[in-house]
C-alpha cells in the first residue's frame, strides 16, 4: 500500500509539496496559454445556396438522384484538384507561404472547406425533393478571406452548374444523334437483307405455304384434265389413221361432198354467166381436178390433220412436263421451309432488336431536347445563392477553451504525479492513523511537531515564493490574454502577420 490512502493523505501531500505543485501547475498553464494564443485565429464564413425546383418536373435530369448522392457529386466537383488550383490562383491564397508545396496547399484548402446539405422535413431521403439547401462553410485566418473562399465556391456551384448541364445536354445530343444515324443505317441494311432473302426463298416462306397447297391442288386438277385431253387427241389420231388407209379403195365422204358442191356451183354459174367467163373456167378446172386427183387431195388433208394433232400432243406434253417441274420445285421449297423459317425469324429478330434500340434512342433524344427547351426557358432545377458569406466579426468557436482546460488538467496531473513520486522515494509516517495502518496498533500518545526558527524561516520563504509565483503567473497570463494596455500579446501579433492570403 502507498502513502496516499485517503483524501486527508492527498491534501497533506499537496500541502507539503505545494511549491512544487504550484510551480509545475503555473508553468504548464502559462505554456498552454502561450501555445493557444500564439496559434492563428480561425474565422468561419458560410454561404447558403437554395435549390429552386421547377414547375415542370424533369425526370431525366441529375436531380432525380437522391439528395445525398447529389451533394456528393457537387462536393466532388468542387474539391477536384483543378478547381482548387483555380480558386488558389483567383484569390491569391498562400501568396506568402513559399515553403508549401502544391499538394499541401490543396490539402489545406480542402480541409478548410465543408459542404453540408439541408434536407426538407417530412420528405424521404431518396426523393428528389429531399434536398432543400446547401451550406458551404470555409475557414481562414482572416475574416475577409473566409468570406471570399465561401463565396467563390458558392459562385462555382451557381454559375457553373448551368454550364455543366448545357455541356452534358450537348454531349448527350451528339451521342444520341450519331447513335440514331448508325442504327437507322443498320436497320436499312437489315431490311434489305430480309427483302432479298424473302425474294430468293419466296416459295419456302411461311406465308406462302397455304398458296402452295392451293397451287398443288390446281396442278393436280390441271394434270387430270390434260391427261384426258391427251387421251382424246390420241384417240382422234388413231381414228384419223384408220380413215386415211381406206381412201385407196373409195373416196372419203368429204371428197364426194366437195365434188357435188363443185358441180352445183358450176351449174349455177352456167345459168347466170357467159360460156367464156373466167369464173366458169375456174369452176370447170376445179371440178376436173377433184375428179382426177381426189385420192391425193384426201391424203394431204389427212396428213395436215395428223400434223395438227401431233402439234397439240407435243404442246400438251410440254405443259405436262412444266407442271411436273413446278411440282418438284414446290416439294423442294416445302422441304426447305423449316430452315428458311428459322433464318428469317433470326433476321427479323435482329431487325426488331435494332428497331427497339432505335426507338429507345429516339425517346432519350426527345427527353434531352425537352431538357434543353426547359433550360432555355428557365424551367429546370437550378441553384440560387440565397445568402452570401459575410466577413465574420469574431473568430469561430475553436478548440481554445477545450485546449485550455486540457492544459490545466494536464499540468495538475503532472504536478500531482511528480509529488507522488517524490513521496514514494521518502516514505514517512506523519500521522497516527498512518502509524496505525502500518503497524496495526495505535500509539499511546502523539505529540505535535513544534517548528524551529529554521522551519519558520523556510515557511516564510515558501510563502514569499508562492506569492511571487502567483503574481508573475497572473501577470504573464494577463499579458498572454491581451488584458494589459500598451503591451500586445503574441496572439495579436500572429493575427496581424499570419494568414492564408
TrEMBL record:
Keywords assigned by UniProt, alphabetized: Cell membrane, Coiled coil, Membrane, Transmembrane, Transmembrane helix
Record-annotated Polysaccharide chain length determinant N-terminal domain positions: 6-57
Record-level GO cellular component terms: plasma membrane
UniProt entry tagged with the keyword Transmembrane helix: yes
Residue ranges crossing the lipid bilayer per the database entry: 20-37, 404-422, 464-482
Chief location bin: membrane
Superkingdom, taxonomy of origin: Bacteria
Membrane topology recorded in Swiss-Prot or TrEMBL: Multi-pass membrane protein
InterPro entries xrefs: Bact_polysacc_biosynth/exp (IPR050445), LPS_length_determ_N (IPR003856)
Subcellular location: Cell membrane
Coiled coil: 180-272, 330-371
UniProt name for this protein: Uncharacterized protein involved in exopolysaccharide biosynthesis
Source organism per UniProt: Paracoccus aminovorans
